[in-house]
Each structure stands twice: as structure tokens, then as C-alpha cells.
Amino acid sequence: MEAFILELGTGFAFVERQKRMIIDGEDFRLDLLFYHRNLKRLVAIELKLGKFEAKHKGQMELYLKWLDKYEKNEGELSPVGLILCAESSREQVELLEMNKDGIMVAEYWTELPPKKELEQKIHAILAEAKERIERKKLME
């Protein structure tokens, strides 16, 4: 757990694993809950084994609203969420405008791919980002 927190950066304090939330009599469990001292807000983290799916946004929104209502203390800002997936869906994330809702999506790797494959992935991500920027410019 310590290594994971250190990967996130400084200022994080572990709050709870498998945070139980009861909503309409149903049990929900948030994978990890942290508090960020500098940001003065709760940070909810959901771990997904597969590719990002649009339904993950709704799940995280529900968790953030619950945390805001029942767990946020006076003087704290609204909670934010991080969805860690084995594979991101960049266009879905962009279209869902998740950053506006305080939700970020990131990919995790259990091990680094070979150097050649990593270079190809980085080049593909850069090309896709450039294409999105150009598309956005055309729409303005």
C-alpha cells in the first residue's frame, strides 16, 4: 500500500479500502479512498481489470455524490475520482468530458512492454492527440 501511495505523489493519506456505501438499501464498495492534504479533498479510486467503459463514469459519479453528502467535512472541497483501467478509451473519456465532473481516467501496467512496443504506443498516443487537436480546431 505504501508503494502505491508513493506512486500517486506526496500529500496522500490512506483512509479506507473497500469503503462501504449503502444507497437505497444496496451495498456499494469503493476500492480505495484517500485524503489529499494539500488539495483538502477526498480522492476516490476505482480499479478496473479491463478496458474503460462509459458506465464506469456513472458509478464514480454516484460514489462522489455520496462522499460529498456523507463524508466531506466542513472546509473541504468536493471529492474527486480516479478510475484506473487496464486500457483507456480515449475518445469515450473525451466525449464524456469526465474532467468537468472531477473524474480522471488512467491506464495502469503490471509490467512495462518491450522498448519497441512502448515506443509504438507513445507514438500512437501522440498521433491521436494531434489528430484530436486538429479536429477540435476545425470545429471552432
Structure description:
This protein is of the alpha/beta class. The chain has two domains: 107 residues, Trna Endonuclease, Chain: A, domain 1; 29 residues. Strands 1-2-3-4-5 form a five-stranded mixed beta sheet, sandwiched between helices. The chain is globular, with a radius of gyration of 17 Å.
What topology does this entry show?
Layout: H1 2-8, E1 12-23, E2 26-36, E3 41-51, H2 55-70, E4 80-87, H3 90-96, E5 103-107, H4 115-139
Parallel strand pairs: 3-4, 4-5
Antiparallel strand pairs: 1-2, 2-3
Q: What is the typical, i.e. mean, pLDDT?
A: 85
Largest sheet: 5 strands, mixed
The level 1 CATH classification of the largest domain is Alpha Beta
Instruction: Tally the helices.
Output: 4
Overall geometric form: globular
Compressed to H and E, one letter per element, the order equals HEEEHEHEH
